[in-house]
From TrEMBL, chain A:
This is Acetolactate synthase small subunit. PANTHER family: ACETOLACTATE SYNTHASE SMALL SUBUNIT (PTHR30239), ACETOLACTATE SYNTHASE SMALL SUBUNIT 1, CHLOROPLASTIC (PTHR30239:SF0). CDD domains: ACT_AHAS. Transmembrane segments: none annotated. InterPro entries: Acetalactate_synth_ssu, Acetolactate_synth/TF_NikR_C, Acetolactate_synth_ssu_C, ACT-like_dom_sf, ACT_dom, AHAS_ACT, AHAS_small-like_ACT.
From TrEMBL, chain B:
Its EC number is 2.2.1.6. GO terms for cellular component: acetolactate synthase complex. This is Acetolactate synthase. The lineage of its organism: Bacteria, Bacillati, Bacillota, Bacilli, Bacillales. Residues 399-547 form the Thiamine pyrophosphate enzyme TPP-binding domain. It comes from Sediminibacillus halophilus. One of its GO terms (biological process) is L-valine biosynthetic process.
């Protein structure tokens, strides 16, 4: 099962290595990982998307992460109400006459063209991973020359519905 | 910079180097023994140690691996962190086996490694190795010092992390310019570790659940691990077991946590454990694990491990609970705190006469056994003879393999913290240097190193330390001319194809000891051994005994790989 885990960590050299090394040592599969600073100086936040076999493995993962001295907090937010976003840059083969057509395709995704050259153009799209997947599929027939994705970053929504309101809300495991 | 005023002299400015700060911090931590080996990147540190030589005993081993295993032995019997110093590059990489060993067996170590100067880190400089990268997965935590003024705080943190919660090794990597340069900034050693708050107090709700389970259990059993001794809870364990008539099986590393000759003692469980201990774990309806990590050598095939039991697990490391075995009652706690609270939560007393009788019948029908021809040296007999002459009270260290299992089976420990062995990592060459560390920690005690002829040859250069310090360690080589456990598996599982496991060529261990100025004896018969033992143990100096034991002897009983606790072989002659 895919899980979204956030970890608040001390922003020290080597901390990313500690986390990825730990996951590798314990044979966990990382689908994506994104790291960045937070509102507090010296503290960073990581968002990990991992593939785990079962709940027992998931529990091991969070416990092992928690054991790291530089890790302050670990939360599995998969089943919470969350805001999750990813950014992708897509370079598409494009002769001049196709640009309007491509513009039409990306517009509903609120994506934008950020670079244009003689035979290609680059598109930036932000959103949930599913939305990005969908756009990539639509663009694939035109010929994708290069694709770069940031991996997901996420946090909890300001309001968490009671479990009765939203029994099994999950972004990934619907 | 600090202004120092000496009486009668003008004030003078004294600037301390990183190495001075390190030595100061070690004194503050009440470190009295250092195990180490000098080299280029730690020259400033060794110079500061020279200046402070009144404060420390420095044990110069002949290989860094010897230093770290000695520190492990020291830590295991003293309960204090073992302190190791090695230089950069090869000095540091030679420590890796010991660091991994201490990690998996939860031994508190603080390891200082030299590093090339900050300006050349990352340039493949002379004797540079990525110590942080190499040791991250095998340490509880590690540091590379980036500012001289951080050093006192880092040292204090390192000792705190190594010795609290679940103990473990901490590496502090010190670039040469950090130790050599003066500290110009203000410094203090106050620390705050928001990500490290080990929980030692048990949750009363879980303890209540455990007490309820205990009240209704018909076939309860305790599994005692090394965590009992890390928590100094042996006394509490004995009282708790007696109050509720609970039989106690121990893990390999838990030997000594419960008196070996106690009527409730079942002995060691696991691959080469006793039949009764393993059957008790298989048949029980309540399993109370205190400070053991359900290692695969203990559990055998997990499908057949305690299949009918409610499992309670008391461990200071939450990640151990539920890792291998599904746990119904998790108690995250220090072993002593949990046992003390359990006296309060389980006020009733219990007897389990039928269950205890059942186990006692098992013990009578299936005791440990070996064939004794009464002339040649039988390894099991050898361990028993040493047990008898030392009344089961010596500190015993071992290497890994057959002799280790025989020592675990036949040297019934009555007291905690007397058994020093490499359990998790299974490190050959561990036993002899560990005995050096144990003897330094307990100079008055009898320390015996049972080693194999294979393992001893991995670290025997430390005989120099015995000679130099005149440490009265008794090295008993259980010499079967083979890597015995490898040979046993090849006999059992590989149709007697003894691939590279027979040590045809060996040094003359007696002459070898002699060349180090140490008394050595070769022993071939039981009679010779019995005659010699009183002399060996009354002599207050080092002795090496080359005991030629029966070569074809195997360790039994045994759970073959992939089998369950109830599928032991070699239970009867």
């Amino acid at each position: 099962m895919r899980r979204i885990i956030t970890a608040t960590v001390q922003n020290r050299s080597g901390v990313l290595n500690r986390i990825t090394g730990l996951l590798q040592k314990r044979q966990f599969n990382i689908e994506s990982i994104s790291v960045g600073r937070t509102e507090t100086e010296s503290i960073s936040k990581m968002t990990l998307v991992v593939e785990v076999e079962d709940n027992q493995k998931l529990e091991q993962l969070t416990k092992q992460l928690n054991k790291q001295i530089d890790v302050l907090k670990v939360t599995d937010i998969t089943d919470k109400a969350i805001v999750a976003r990813e950014l992708a840059l897509i370079k598409v083969v494009s002769a001049g006459q196709l640009r309007n057509e491509l513009q039409g395709i990306i517009e509903p995704f609120r994506a934008s063209i950020i670079d244009v050259s003689k035979d290609s153009l680059s598109i930036q799209v932000t959103g949930k991973p599913e939305k990005i997947e969908a756009l990539i599929e639509l663009l694939r027939p035109y010929g994708i020359k290069e694709l770069a994705r940031t991996g997901m970053t996420a946090f909890l929504r300001g309001h968490q519905p009671q479990s009765a309101e939203l029994p099994s809300y999950s972004l990934l495991n619907r | 910079m600090k202004v120092q005023t000496k009486p009668g002299t003008a004030p003078r400015i004294e600037t301390k180097t990183g190495a001075d700060l390190l030595v100061e911090s070690l004194i503050k931590q009440k470190v009295d023994i250092l195990f180490g080996y000098p080299g280029g990147a730690v020259l400033p540190i060794y110079d500061a140690i020279y200046r402070a030589r009144e404060s420390f005993t420095h044990i110069l081993t002949r290989h860094e691996q010897g230093a770290i295993h000695a520190a492990e032995g020291y830590a295991r019997v003293s309960g204090k962190p073992g302190v190791v110093i090695a230089t950069s590059g090869p000095g540091a990489t030679n420590l890796v086996t010991g660091i991994a060993d201490a990690m998996i067996d939860s031994l508190p170590l603080v390891v200082f490694t030299g590093q090339v100067a900050r300006g050349v880190i990352g340039t493949d400089a002379f004797q540079e190795a990525d110590v942080m990268g190499i040791t991250t997965p095998i340490t509880k935590h590690n540091y590379q010092v980036q500012h001289v003024s951080d050093l006192p705080r880092i040292v204090r943190e390192a000792f705190h992390i190594a010795s609290t919660g679940r103990p473990g090794p901490v590496v502090v990597d010190i670039p040469k310019d950090i130790s050599a340069n003066p500290c110009e900034d203000e410094y203090d050693d106050n620390f705050h570790l928001p990500g490290y708050q080990p929980n030692i107090k048990p949750n009363p709700l879980q303890l209540k659940k455990l007490a309820n389970a205990l009240e209704t259990a018909k076939r309860p059993v305790i599994l005692a691990g090394a965590g009992v001794m890390f928590g100094s809870a042996s006394e509490e364990l004995r009282k708790f077991a007696e109050k509720h008539s609970l039989p106690v099986a121990t893990t390999l590393l838990g030997l000594g946590s419960f008196p070996g000759a106690h009527p409730l003692a079942l002995g060691m469980a696991g691959m080469h454990g006793t039949f009764t201990a393993n059957r008790a774990l298989y048949e029980c309806d309540l399993l109370i694990n205190i400070g053991a990590r359900f290692d695969d050598r203990l559990t055998g095939n997990l499908e057949h491990f305690a299949p009918k039991a409610t499992v309670a697990h008391i461990d200071i490391d939450p990640a151990e609970i539920g890792k291998n075995v599904t746990t119904h009652i998790p108690v995250v706690s220090d072993s002593k705190a949990a046992l003390q609270s359990l006296f309060y939560h389980a006020e009733f007393t219990s007897d389990h006469d039928d269950w205890l009788q059942h186990l006692s019948d098992y013990q009578k029908e299936n005791p440990l056994w070996y064939k004794n021809p009464a002339k040649e040296m039988v390894p099991q007999w050898l361990i028993e003879a040493v047990h008898n002459i030392t009344n089961g009270n010596a500190i015993v260290t071992t290497d890994v393999g057959q002799h280790q299992m025989w020592a675990a089976q036949y040297y019934a420990f009555e007291e905690p913290d007397r058994w020093v062995t490499s359990g998790g990592l299974g490190t050959m060459g561990f036993g002899f240097p560990a005995a050096i560390g144990a003897q330094l920690a307990k100079p008055e005690e009898t320390v015996i190193a049972f080693v194999g002829d294979g393992g001893f040859q991995m670290t025997l250069q430390e005989l120099s330390v015995l000679q130099e310090r005149q440490l009265p360690v008794k090295v008993i080589i259980v010499n079967n001319g083979a890597l015995g456990m490898v040979r046993q598996w090849q006999e059992t599982f590989y149709e007697e194809r003894y691939s590279e496991s027979l040590l045809q060529i060996q040094p003359d261990f007696v002459k070898l000891a002699d060349s180090y100025g140490i008394q050595g004896y070769r022993i071939d018969t039981q009679e010779e051994f019995i005659d010699l033992l009183p002399e060996v143990f009354s002599y207050n100096g080092p002795v090496v005994l080359d005991c030629r034991v029966l070569r074809q002897e195997n360790v039994y009983p045994m759970i073959a790989p992939g089998k369950g606790l109830h599928q032991m072989i070699g239970v009867k002659p």
